[in-house]
Fold Hydrolase.
Amino acid sequence: MTLESDNQMNAQLAQVDEMQGAGQAGAQLIELWPLTDATQLDNDAKYGENLQVRLTRALARLMTGLDVTIPDAEFVYEGADEIPGRPQEIVEALLAANDAYDGLAGFSRTVDFDQVQQAVERLEAGWSEAESQQAQQVVEAALATWCPQEVEASVDPAIIAQRLAASIQLGAALGQAVGAGPERVRAALPILLVVNEFNERLEIPRCYLGDDLLLELLKLEPGDDGLTSLARILGSAAKEEWEQHQADLLWDPEEAQRKAKEEDERKSREALQAKFAHVPEDPNKTPVEL
């Protein structure tokens, strides 16, 4: 796959309805920056931790074929090197996934391909020397095509959709370069992390891709039709993720506690009313508000 230097395919993908929706969601999220509110800063840090937990869980599920749970991923993220009652294979996969994730931190700035190669080794992705060279050429071409210099953040939905389209094209091109597919799922694992670093480079939010969705994407045929299907699926996934990121940022614990208290009181009133629903009303009794 050749990256389109004239951005023709990029513009086409950005016009897909799901990509337009992602552009809107991304714009609403990016508009919140720079974060200055202490609660929002804390919420964003928690979102970042949760994203790593979810992504490393997805990687470990694909690496092992086992039912890796969120609690498993949380335990390892927090420093566990064994989990009582759980297969050690799961723990080892999660440790490798976290090492790969942490090892790629900052790649958006350094664009040092050695970081990618280290992630490939940690995830046992099985890239050959020739495939690694092709992957490096793809990354270098993407950087030259879409961000030859520092990119400024934008709240224009159309620009965000175009940048997401560039990220999707990079992922597809890397997949072809390393022969990722239904028969070589592990070859695709480092690509999930590289694409998120590329998102950082393009000043758009990171995304989440679960193991089930990745397996679905790997079945798509290459070519323009495959890219359009990819844009539909990933545009929808990005929209959902970015809307959730915004909701997480704006979450107010005090407001949530107040609403939870109101909900508990409402349920108590309804339960009390139901309990005495069979008792006939005394027409001479003064009404009492519950």
About this structure: Residues 38-64 form the longest helix (27 residues).
